[in-house]
C-alpha cells in the first residue's frame, strides 16, 4: 500500500513539474511574440468586448500596446496581448485562467521594453507592477 501512495505522490510531483515547465515556455513565447508585435509598430484596433482587453482593464494593466497574438504550445492554443503594465495571455477557450507576466528585461544592447518586478500571476484579476514600454 505504501508503494502505491508513494507512486501517486511522485506522479503528482511529475505533473506539477511538467505544468511549471509548460508555463515557463508559454511565458517566454508570449513575451517573444508580443514584444515582436510591439516593436513592429503595426497599427491595430482594440476590441473592448475581448476577454483579454476586459481582464486587463480589471487588472489595471493600462493601454493595449499590441494586437492579440496567437501561438500553440504543448497541444494547446494561446492568445496573448501586451499592455502598458504587463502581458496577459490565456489558453484559448479557458477564459478563467488568465496569466499575467512582466515584460522581458531590457537587453543590455538596448531595447524598448523594461521589466519591473519578476514573476507571473495566474487566474489573475488582481495585481500589477510598474512596467513601462
How does this structure look, described?
With 133 residues, the chain is of the alpha+beta class. It is 35% helix and 19% strand. The chain contains two helices and five strands; from the N terminus they run ααβββββ. A five-stranded antiparallel β-sheet has the order 1-2-3-4-5, with helices on both faces. The protein is elongated and about 55 Å long.
Short description:
With 133 residues, this protein is an alpha+beta fold. The chain has helices at 2-40, 51-58; strands spanning 69-73, 76-83, 86-91, 99-101, 120-122.
Key features?
2 helices, disordered C terminus, 133 residues, elongated, five-stranded antiparallel β-sheet, alpha+beta, single chain
Mean pLDDT: 80
| Spatial order of strands in the largest sheet | 1-2-3-4-5
SS summary, helix count: 2
Instruction: Give the number of DSSP strands.
Output: 5
**Helix/strand order:** HHEEEEE
Characterize the main sheet: 5 strands, antiparallel
**Helical proportion?**
25-40%
Give me the Rg, rounded. 17 Å
Low-confidence stretches: 111-119, 124-133
**Helix/sheet category:** alpha+beta
Q: Termini, distance in Å?
A: 56 Å
Strand content bin: 15-25%
Shape: elongated
Amino acid at each position: 500500500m505504501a508503494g502505491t501512495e508513494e507512486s501517486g505522490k511522485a506522479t503528482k510531483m511529475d505533473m506539477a513539474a511538467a505544468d511549471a515547465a509548460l508555463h515557463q515556455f508559454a511565458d517566454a513565447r508570449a513575451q517573444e511574440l508580443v514584444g515582436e508585435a510591439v516593436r513592429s509598430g503595426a497599427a491595430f484596433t482594440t476590441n473592448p468586448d475581448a476577454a483579454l482587453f476586459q481582464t486587463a482593464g480589471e487588472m489595471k494593466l493600462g493601454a493595449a500596446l499590441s494586437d492579440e497574438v496567437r501561438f500553440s504550445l504543448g497541444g494547446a492554443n494561446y492568445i496573448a496581448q501586451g499592455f502598458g503594465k504587463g502581458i496577459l495571455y490565456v489558453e484559448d477557450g479557458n477564459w478563467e485562467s488568465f496569466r499575467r507576466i512582466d515584460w522581458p528585461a531590457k537587453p543590455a544592447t538596448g531595447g524598448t521594453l523594461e521589466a519591473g518586478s519578476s514573476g507571473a500571476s495566474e487566474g489573475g484579476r488582481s495585481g500589477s507592477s510598474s512596467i513601462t514600454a
